[in-house]
Design a protein that fits this description.
With about 170 residues, the protein is of the alpha/beta class. It is about 40% helix and about 20% strand. It has a six-stranded mixed sheet with strand order 1-6-5-2-4-3, with helices on both faces. Helix 3 runs parallel beside helix 4 (about 125-135) and helix 4 packs across helix 5. It holds the Pfam family Macro.
């Protein structure tokens, strides 16, 4: 499986599935969710909410509407109750469940943001480490192109450094 880091707006990406950094209510507000909602130009928020609420770490799938994808996988790394903060476990579970669901859907390509950061309040670098490790360790069935997307240049550089370390560690173990 090819694992790359890219920079940009997730709503501008082309893949079989795009991933929304969701909360458990699946209500699409700001950040990644807002970008996908605006780019979809359709009732994606209504469809997402109709599939929720979901458990922390769970995923739901909607149509991608006018986004250049077949599906949007809504990965609930953040609770929409209590303090609303993501955890190490919720980020890892949401990432693993996203990868498994993409395989179940027969996806070959997937674009994943760093889940649980931003509005969810989790440290970006730590969240990026969790997401990248989960992807790196995943044994895909159909996925052969997984791209981790960062919105800004500093975030991109952070994620790329993590990806480079994972690759270097993997090369040393072989």
């Amino acid at each position: 499986m090819e694992f790359t880091v890219i920079e940009g707006d997730i709503a501008d990406q082309s893949a079989d599935a795009l991933v929304n950094a969701a909360g458990t209510s699946l209500q699409m507000g700001s950040g990644v969710a807002g970008a996908l909602r605006r780019g979809a130009h359709g009732p994606i928020n209504d469809e997402a909410v109709s599939k929720g609420p979901v458990d922390l770490g769970a995923v739901a799938v909607t149509d991608a509407y006018e986004l250049d994808a077949e599906h949007v996988i809504h990965a609930a790394a953040m609770p929409h109750y209590g303090d609303g903060r993501a955890t190490t476990e919720s980020i890892r579970e949401a990432t693993e469940n996203t990868l498994e669901r993409a395989d179940e859907l027969g996806c070959e390509s997937l674009v994943v943001p760093i889940l649980g950061t931003g509005a969810a309040g989790f440290d970006f670098e730590t969240g990026a480490q969790i997401v990248c490790e989960a992807i790196w360790q995943y044994g895909p069935d159909t996925l052969d192109d997984v791209r981790v997307i960062a919105y800004s240049t500093p975030e991109y550089e952070t994620v790329q450094e993590i990806a480079d370390r994972l690759e270097s560690n993997d090369d040393q173990q072989e």
